[in-house]
Structure formats: structure tokens, C-alpha cells
Amino acid sequence: MSAAVPPEILRQVKLLELRTRGLVNSLFTGEYRSVFKGQGMEFAEVREYQSGDEVRAIDWNVTARMGKPCVNRYVEERELTVMLAVDLSGSERFGTRVRFKSELASELAAVLAMSAIRNNDRVGAVLFSDRIEHVVPPRKGRRHALRLMRDLLVYEPQGTGTDLATALEYTGKMLSHKAVIFVVSDFQSENIEQPLRLLAQRHDVVAVTVDDPSELALPDIGLARFVDPESGKTIDIDTSDKSVRARFAEAVADELQARRRLLRRLAIDEVPVSTDKGVVDPLIKFFRTRETRARRR
User: At residue 191, does pLDDT exceed 70?
Assistant: First the structure.
């Protein structure tokens, strides 16, 4: 960490590291390894089953021929690269509950970064708004993870809008080998289907969708003025009008349904997180769903 970093920022980074390290050590290390460390594996040999071997590694055809249990052994073909594409647009600097969407995104990205580092993988980040704001090339090690967390906490974006398509294209071009890419965003951006499809064809893409409860339902607070955090435009709305609230709820439901349909169509897993809840349960659910699916295969 640089000596030029203000002490308050260093304290924030240290607190984030302590919080996420505890989560990683107690909850996510085994989950992460079981889901991701099987990727990029190369067949090495068939050998006799030994105590401690996983049952799913048994080669039943060889077992039948040899008359005794035999397992396939694999070695890791290459180290895993985890990339975090994190949305820093104006809509992320919003929150009406425990934290802003950007703060939730930073904590989740930190947990993933610490999980990768704990498993000796490389981790990097692309921070974006309506442009590529900042890039942290993937590397290993605790010092690198701390630098990444610092950047997530303190980087001040120049743009306020969202250009997710450009961020997806940029992330894909900078990676020469298959990687696991977590796209952390509210996905409030246009023309993303094609770049998402192309990225998912080469990499393992996971969509972390960040929302706030107040974005899903218009509160009944009378006449109110709302400001678009990305464009700065204002609009006056009578929130006491039931028809207005109904149209808002319908529009939000359509948008969420369209997002889910898109991700399902592209076979991209979604990890939904909300500012009124933590990151633990959604991540555990994601890891365990992935592991269950892999076992069925």
C-alpha cells in the first residue's frame, strides 16, 4: 500500500480486509475451491481408489474392468484468473437501507478477491461507468488484494452514466485465457445482449445484480421530486396517485423479468444482492447451486 494513501483510507481497507477475511476463512474457502478449482484441469492418470478420494472421481468403466475401485486423477492445467467488472455509474451511488449499492458491490468484490487470493489464484478488476475508469491487472498475493480493495473503496469515477457493453468488450479483449468474470452491476444499460453472449462464449460469466428495495416500489410520500443520478434530470411525481405507483411497479417488474430472461437465455448464473441484506447468503446459495449442478453432470 502506498505511503501517500490517507490514514483513514488505510483504516477502511484494513476493516474491509478483516471483515472479508473472516467470511472467507469461515464460509467461502471450501465453497470457492469446490466450484472453481475444477476448471482448467488436465487428465493425469487412473489409480486405485484411496481413503479420502471423492466418490465422484471414480471411473466406473475402469472399476468394472479391474474389479476394484479406481479414480481418475487430474492436475490443474493452469492457475485460475478471476476478474471483477464493477459498475461505478451514478445509479450505483444510491441506497436507502443499510448502505449504497456501490458499498455493497465493493464488499462483495472484496470477498471474491480474498477467496481467489486464498486459493492462490490471480484476481483483477475493471472499474467502469460510461467509460473504462480504472483497470487492475490480475495478479496474486495479499498485497495485490489490498490494493484492489483500496481502489474499490476510493476511486472517484469521472463518468456518471453506464456503458456496460463497452466494459464487457474491454474485459474480454484483455484476457488471453479463459477466466471467471463476475460482472457486478444493476445492469441498467442498453445493448448488452451481444457483448454478454460473446463474453460468455469464451469465459465463465457470473452476473451479480445489485438492487435497492426503494427501486422496486414507489413510496407513498405525496408530491416528490426525483433526480436521475446518471443524467441529472429531475421529474416531479405525485406518489400518492395509485395509478402512478401501479405503472411504476409494472415497469420495474417488466425490467427485472427481461433481465432474468436475458441471463437465462445466455446460460449466465445470477447472484442477486440487495442493499438491505448482506452478501453471505446470496454467495453461499450461488456456490452450492453450482456445486450441485456439477455433481449432477
Answer: yes
Q: Do both 23 and 87 map to the same domain?
A: yes
- Please state the pTM of the whole predicted model: 0.78
Question: What is the rounded distance in angstroms from the CA atom of residue 119 to the CA atom of residue 39?
Answer: 13
First vs last Cα of the chain: how many Å apart?
Answer: 43
Question: What angle is formed at CA 129 by the lines to CA 124 and CA 131, rounded to 5 degrees?
Answer: 85
Instruction: State residue 78's pLDDT score.
Output: 54
**152 and 66 share a domain?**
no
Angstrom CA distances, 114 to 14, 18, 101, stand at 13, 10, 20
Total domains, the chain: 2
Rounded to the nearest 10 degrees, the angle between the axes of helix 29-36 and helix 280-296 is: 40
Three-state secondary structure of 97-145: CCCCHHHHHHHHHHHHHHHHHHCCCEEEEEEECCCEEEEEEEECCHHHH
Determine the Cα–Cα distance for residues 75 and 44; give it in Å rounded to an integer: 6
Q: Which three cell numbers stand for residue 107?
A: 464488499
Question: Residue 44 is which amino acid?
Answer: A
> Which grid cell sits at 157?
469515477
- Residue 59 predicted with pLDDT over 70: yes
For 207, the grid coordinates are 452476473
Could you tell me the residue range of the domain that residue 23 belongs to?
7-32+79-296
Please report the beta strands in the chain, taking only residues with DSSP state E, as ranges in sequence order.
41-48, 70-76, 81-87, 122-128, 132-139, 180-185, 204-211, 223-227, 234-238, 269-274
